[in-house]
Amino acid sequence: MTDYTAPVKDMSFVLDELCDLEGLNGLSSFADVTPDLVDHILNESARFTGEVVAPLNQSGDRQASVLEGTEVRTPDGFKEAYAQFVEGGWNSTPFEPEYGGMGLPWTVTTALQEMWQSANLAWSLCPMLTIGVIEALIAHATPELRNRYLSKLVSGEWTGTMNLTEPQAGTDLSLLKTRAVREGDHYRVTGQKIFITFGEQDYTDNIIHLALARLPDAPPGVKGISLLLVPKYLVNEDGSLGERNDVFAVSLEHKLGIHASPTCVMAFGDAGGAIGYLIGEEHDGLRCMFTMMNNARLNVGLQGVSIGERAYQQAVEYAKSRVQSAPVSGGGEAATIIQHPDVRRMLMMMRAQVEAMRATAYYTNSALDRSRHHDDEDVRRANHARMELLTPVVKAWCTDLGVDIASIGVQVHGGMGFIEETGAAQYLRDSRIAPIYEGTNGIQAIDLLGRKLLRDGGDAMSDLLDEMEQLDEALVATQDADCVAVQKSLADGRVALRKASDWLLDPTNNDIDTKFAGATPFLHMTGTVVGGWLMARAALAAHRKAANSGDRSFLEAKIVTARFYADHVLPRVHALLPEITQGSGSVLALAEDQF
Length: 595
Known about the structure:
This protein is α+β, with helices and mostly antiparallel strands. It has helices spanning about 10-20, 20-25, 35-55, 55-65, 80-85, 105-120, 120-140, 145-155, 285-320, 340-375, 375-415, 425-430, 440-455, 460-470, 470-475, 480-505, 510-515, 520-545, 550-570, 575-580, 585-590, and strands spanning about 65-70, 70-75, 160-165, 180-185, 185-195, 205-215, 225-230, 235, 240-245, 245-250, 265-270, 275-280.
């Protein structure tokens, strides 16, 4: 397995040229976030992930986390790496100084999270879940709970988990059976949760669980769900740890990948009831939990970028060193496989899609930052709509591609890719969970179509397509053959996306099953076109900078990569259009007993 080197130059290019980091830094909330500070943070994180976290990836996969009694022992080095993570203040980067945070834009933290996830996906899941818990507490907890728990969570001294799923209740949370009974200023929680990432670990001396439960007088369905904070150890008024709470890990799941991440079955209240504290209002837990879930969905989407980048780096290094067969152009002697056109095609497919995914994930988080911190209410509203539209795209499109890219990485290695020692297979195994957890990708497609496109009548999508069209003139004006070709391919893709959107919005097409049969192709089309738009913007920025830059090679590579995306990826939308508008009949034709 090759070493991981964080692509800081690529990250900075996206932050500067596609996310307008300078504009973000101009907002009052980020006035102290200077370019020099961001450069220092990115480079220091690159050093930490490359030297400390990445070397544990393969050994952690082999050793795995184990349950000893009710305590989890993580692989060698994981606990020590996490201690360095906390010491470096990395957990606190996106949170306001009033909570002990560094106050960086989420956009910058997104680049940092990509590094953590690329370096060691299993290890990175613990801080990722903690970040979501912090978001939920800031948004919905009482001042007393925030004062008691936030500072330790923000620093990373304590970690957090999300407890939704039960054996009978996966996507359909209306079926959950975990109960919470009022008892003075707290509740007694009983029940079982499954698939709880880092539900138990040896990193910290306390774990803060957020759990969905139903009160005895709760109305049926999802409207009767409440959100409870259940600490592993109760916390005294002075902040010290009290007695052990009645919540324990009772087993670990045996998984296809992310072996080093303990995925726990958690038992709440086997000895009388775990003490929990209400977050938000009674019966309003799902809305509160969605604060955490939306954060997690963006971060899980980033996992597709991260695993794709790691697989790409290893595939490139292998292709440069593996000698096999003479080039088809002649020469007679065996050459490194990167000389072969089909290997080049695979590497370019990996590279171009990773860059498009990275751009989409970072850009969506920049919209999140502007939706929260811009001074103009109209700008905040527009960016909120853009972020909401693209969140399911980031989650599903990026994670689907992450699996595809990891699979291509195995293919580049040939037979050696199927051998565990090379490490290529681990990326494929690890990547496969991302399209499943935090809402399966089918659920994300339903969200994009139902809660985003149809609910607002297509306004957010139309605004995005109109903004894409404004790029045409600038690309053509370059008179650069690559930029012009990118513009034409993007324009064709944009037209296809508008046709698909209009068909789905057509009120005469009122068969809802017919529309939703094409939800996943529609999400893939949206991701492909949005990625193409951002790649086109990258090509334009690179063209403008190349003439006066000392790094022409890097900028020229941006243009070539965008051209490859336009030639080989964007045309896929034309196959997706009939899937959306004409393909529902065969999707729904068979009777159930014919399967």
